[in-house]
Amino acid sequence: MLRIEGLSCGYGAATVLHELSMQVERGEVVALIGPNGAGKTTTLQCIAGHVPAKRGKTTFADEDLTARAPQERVRMGIAISPEGRKLFGDMTVRENLIVGGYSRPSGATAANLRRVLDLFPRLEERFGSLGRTLSGGEQQMVAIGRALMAEPRLLLIDELSLGLMPKNVDICYQALRKLRGAGIAILLVEQNLTKALEFSDRVYVMDTGRLVWSGTSGEARSRHDLADLILGHASEITA
Ligand SMILES: Nc1ncnc2c1ncn2[C@@H]1O[C@H](COP(=O)(O)OP(=O)(O)O)[C@@H](O)[C@H]1O
Ligand SMILES: [Mg+2]
After folding, report:
1. Considering the chain, what percentage of its residues have pLDDT values greater than 70?
2. Which SS3 state, helix, strand or coil, does residue 99 take?
């Protein structure tokens, strides 16, 4: 469904991603892992259209994304839960969620809100609370919920569990399991390697803006050198 070929992108004159190629198939869960500064966030932001491509081709459901603005990509079915969650602190949970549905007809809002609240019952209790009063876990639920308001076919999630209490990490993964069951593809950036490899079908490993390994999550679980690379205990993988 998502096909990236030879993608290079960066900020201003600096190129951060070099010749990246990856795919996500319909309904697939793919983990994107790598040490700090590898380019994971840049990759997701480039897919979402917030960082422009310098070279290469990206298609989604066989449509070329190159000239598509971020809001068009949302309409096509790509939604992102960004690193740091990026909620509006002075808006309520309800308002933050509604922002995510701007690409859908207003008649769809009520049903989409209901779906998000069924997925994250905690948000119903916090529905009128301001974004800045939420715990990290609640913020992550809102960020995922906001993305779901766009009815995506591909959900990009940047750092799902970073800074969350274990209980909230579990709640978020339970929700992702339901989304996967509903056929939504997920491209997941996750620093918790165990969680990432448990939950995903396939894995891409990045380092300094390049893909250095890809394979099934089962294969990745038996590769201790991947963990060493991601934890910064090794500067490259061995084979
Ligand atoms: N807004 C930006 N402007 C300039 N350089 C950036 C910006 N954001 C990230 N970078 C650089 O791009 C590289 C990749 O960063 P990033 O995609 O955030 O990595 P990751 O998410 O894997 O930690 C890093 O060297 C980082 O310093
Ligand atoms: Mg990042």
Report:
1. 97
2. helix
Q: Which of the ligands is closest to the CA of residue 43?
A: 1
Q: How many beta carbons lie within 10 A of that of residue 6, not counting itself?
A: 13
Is 28 part of any domain?
yes
Q: How far is the CA of 59 from the centre of ligand 2 (A)?
A: 23
What is the residue range of 20's domain? 2-230
Per-residue model confidence as pLDDT tens digits over 32-68 = 999 999 999 999 999 999 999 999 999 999 999 999 9
Structural domain tally of the chain? Answer: 1
The answer to whether residue 237 sits within a structural domain is no
Indicate which residue's Cα is closest to atom 4 of ligand 1: 11
- The CATH number covering residue 17 comes to 3.40.50.300
- Residue with CA closest to ligand 1 atom 1: 11
141 found inside a domain: yes
Supply angle C-alpha 63, 69, 71, rounded to 5: 100
Region at 78 (left for phi over 0; alpha for psi -120 to 50; beta for the rest): beta
Q: Which ligand is nearest to the CA of 17?
A: 1
What number is the average pLDDT over the span 178-203?
Answer: 95
Maximal C-alpha separation, the chain: 54
- The rounded Å distance from CA 181 to ligand 2 centre is 27
In a 3-state reduction of DSSP, which class is residue 6?
strand
Q: Kindly report, residue by residue over 2-33, the tens digit of the pLDDT.
A: 999 999 999 999 999 999 999 999 999 999 99
